[in-house]
Amino acid sequence: MYTNVIILGNILAILAIFSCNKHDKRLQDMLFRRFMPIFAHVKCLCKDRYGINIPCMKEYLRLILVLLIPLVLVLAYSWSGYRLVFNGCSISKVKGPSEFLALMQWNDSWFAMTADSCDNDKKAFHDMEAMGNDTIVSDSVCEAMDTVPLDTTSKRILFFGDSMVEGLSMRFSDYAMENGHQLYSVCWYGSSIGAWASAPDSIDGMLTWAQPDYIVVSLGGNELRAKDLDRRMEDIQKIQERLGTLPTVWIAPPSWVRNPTITGVIEKSVGSRRYFDSTRLTYTRGSDNMHPTFGSSSRWMDSIAVWMSSPMTAHPIVMAPPTQKYPRRWHKRFIFPH
Fold first, then answer.
1. Residue 102: pLDDT above 80?
2. Residue 181 in 3-state DSSP?
């Protein structure tokens, strides 16, 4: 899929360059002069040997060149370096989604600002947000730059919640292996915020099992249109109290309904810097039209990882993109509905 997108993008970019080139006509005429003798010979051969009459060779040549030139340039570009400069335009490419995410990582160079420049640069960050759904930006960016250091230590990460945990955990394990973390996941199929709040013993047992120093929660997918919002907020607070002072972030469900009520409740309860807004992303859904496919969940996790390592998070940790394929091994438990 990524290869097809890259090739299509290259072709469109090259065609755009040619369409804007003021020397188009001269270039076409030069190519016609070079190739017309060859096609004239082909025309005679077709007529004499096969009885095929080609009335206007120049139009055929024009069509062939229109298709051939982008193809040749794309093939040449595929063998070139990772930056192509042509007619004053520069085209860059990346090796894959991991390198793209590495370019999008929140690093020190993105935040090399002074306090005086924050007001002017906020607009730039909001412009970045408009470029794609995977970049989450808030007005507190300037304050976050100075107050949130990146925690570079290895973590024991507890990741628990509803069935969305299953799809995210596989890619999450790649990030854990890459960055020296240990991942412990608990997937309770069909669970809700209220179910977890009503099972304090399960939470305590989970904490004893994993001994985490960082927690990620993914809940809300089974209560997108909840009405009793005050009750849900109380349940979230019960879960938070049970988790204690451990650094905790919540992942909003990938909503498949318009205006889900639960997402706002989660954000209000835990705070915007402990909440990843998954509703800004787009997904490829599975056969139930609700759960993202494993491939889509992987890209969802890529976006979460960028956010988890950024100053937009209350407690950022190292989540560099995986540079290789890892065996999908992590500590996991599943809870099935009774």
1. no
2. coil
